Recover the amino acids of this structure.
């Protein structure tokens, strides 16, 4: 007869066996992202709203944000490149963000620094979205770039600068315009701890009807024995020539970005193929065939086709077509590098039904896609926050598959070291409230509700692979110190990420 102890041990053993038989799901790995823009919402209208937005997105379960940094002819950060070209270093206070904005003074902000800081404070991967690419201005916007660089603009056969999509574009062949776009991107990479950069289908031609400006015509004549471009903009050879020129720039773009910051994520969000070729002369499935890790450093890391449809059957047809196009181009092994751009709310008064959105995400998972990006934050935060939160909770937290699991872990609060501050004349001394992994950190200081990056002092105590970090915060007239935190600076670690296999 078994003793009481034996019966207890037998019972516990059976519990262990039952628990061991239960499959514990592995932590999900997929990109869960959203685009954030200043258009038609107030999510980043003020520093407080930016902080709330990033906190809520993380709580709901997202891991990545794509934030607008170049729009309507102005950078969303102070840029020496922009100032050198047009005389201002960012969007001036009285210039509208969008044609529909009210006529009121809006402070010129370093929106990139503000949104980047709040994203990283909350452990979100941050992709700087250079939304406008070669697009210089809305047709109703008379900005500096349009006025000061008319020789950069693309034109149709009648000399018009407004493309059928309602925007004025820089010529994607003009060497100065090419250099300008690359230089503002490289400047942002140099100044900020970005996880990635993104362009979309504005890196190409404004429309197949454009390309009759003097510069492009002269280049075409030079390469075709003096013959002018065909008057038919749909001429197959003329379309092929223009597409090839954009392919050349695409390689130059990714190569220069990679040499500036090896390991940074380089993303493209195009319109679906083949529509994007037929209208914009963009053949991004060909770009997906450029082998990762090649010596010329010419490859794109991810593709997010804008599968913007108002119901699931239409989305499924568009997404499946993109998968087929990758396979047909010879890049079928890169389906996991393709994410779905999913429309949540658009020009129609009602948002896309949640049941259709859920099916879209599930279909992308079933077909091997690498994740999804919601267009745009309004759908996530204003239309379906509860539904998205509950949906993500079913599969648990998802890590960003493109970076190590601890790449962005949020910020670490600091507290005033009163003793050290009393003997240090250079400023106040703040010490992290917990030990952190060995690495490079930047201190951020909140004054008058705004976070600023401050000087960082090397750690003064070590414990194997972890350390205490001390920040010296200089006295300033910018306002009283409200809080100090540390954020891991990943720029020194970027070189370790060469490919994302």
């Amino acid at each position: 007869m078994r003793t009481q102890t034996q019966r207890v041990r037998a019972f516990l053993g059976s519990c262990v066996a039952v628990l061991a038989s239960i499959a514990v799901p592995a932590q999900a790995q997929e990109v869960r992202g959203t685009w954030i823009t200043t258009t038609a919402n107030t999510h980043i209208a003020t520093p407080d709203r930016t902080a709330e937005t990033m906190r809520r997105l993380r709580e709901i379960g997202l891991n990545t944000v794509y934030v607008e940094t170049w729009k309507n002819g102005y950078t969303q950060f102070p840029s020496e490149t922009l100032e050198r070209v047009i005389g201002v270093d960012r969007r001036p206070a009285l210039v509208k963000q969008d044609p529909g904005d009210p006529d009121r003074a809006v402070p010129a902000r370093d929106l990139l620094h503000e949104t980047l800081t709040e994203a990283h404070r909350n452990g979100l991967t941050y992709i700087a979205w250079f939304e406008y690419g070669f697009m210089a201005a809305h047709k109703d916007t008379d900005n500096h770039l349009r006025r000061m660089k008319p020789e950069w603009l693309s034109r149709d056969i009648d000399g018009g600068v407004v493309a059928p999509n309602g925007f004025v574009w820089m010529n994607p062949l003009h060497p100065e315009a090419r250099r300008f776009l690359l230089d503002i991107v490289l400047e942002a990479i140099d100044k900020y701890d970005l996880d990635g950069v993104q362009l979309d289908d504005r890196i190409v031609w404004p429309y197949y009807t454009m390309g009759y400006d003097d510069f492009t015509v002269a280049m075409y004549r030079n390469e075709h024995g003096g013959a002018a471009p065909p008057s038919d903009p749909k001429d197959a050879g003329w379309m092929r020539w223009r597409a090839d020129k954009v392919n050349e720039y695409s390689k130059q773009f990714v190569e220069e970005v990679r040499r500036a910051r090896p390991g940074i994520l380089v993303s493209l969000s195009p319109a679906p193929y083949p529509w994007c070729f037929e209208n914009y002369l963009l053949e991004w499935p060909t770009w997906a065939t450029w082998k990762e890790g090649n010596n010329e450093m010419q490859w794109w890391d991810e593709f997010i086709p804008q599968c913007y449809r108002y119901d699931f059957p239409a989305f499924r047809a568009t997404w499946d077509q993109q998968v087929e196009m990758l396979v047909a181009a010879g890049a079928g092994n890169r389906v996991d590098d393709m994410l779905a751009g999913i429309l949540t709310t658009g020009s129609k008064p009602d948002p896309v039904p949640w049941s259709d959105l859920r099916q879209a995400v599930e279909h992308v998972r079933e077909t091997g896609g690498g994740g999804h990006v919601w267009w745009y934050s309004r759908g996530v935060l204003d239309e379906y926050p509860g539904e998205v939160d509950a949906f993500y909770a079913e599969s648990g937290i998802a890590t960003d598959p493109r970076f190590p699991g601890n790449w962005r872990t949020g910020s670490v609060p600091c507290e005033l070291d009163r003793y050290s501050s009393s003997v240090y004349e250079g400023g106040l001394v703040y010490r992290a409230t917990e030990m952190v992994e060995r690495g490079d950190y930047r201190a951020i200081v909140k004054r008058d509700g705004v976070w600023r990056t401050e000087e960082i002092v090397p750690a003064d105590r070590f414990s194997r692979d972890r350390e205490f970090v001390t920040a010296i915060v200089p006295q300033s007239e910018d306002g009283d110190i409200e809080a100090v935190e540390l954020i891991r600076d990943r720029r020194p670690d970027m070189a370790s990420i060469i490919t994302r296999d």
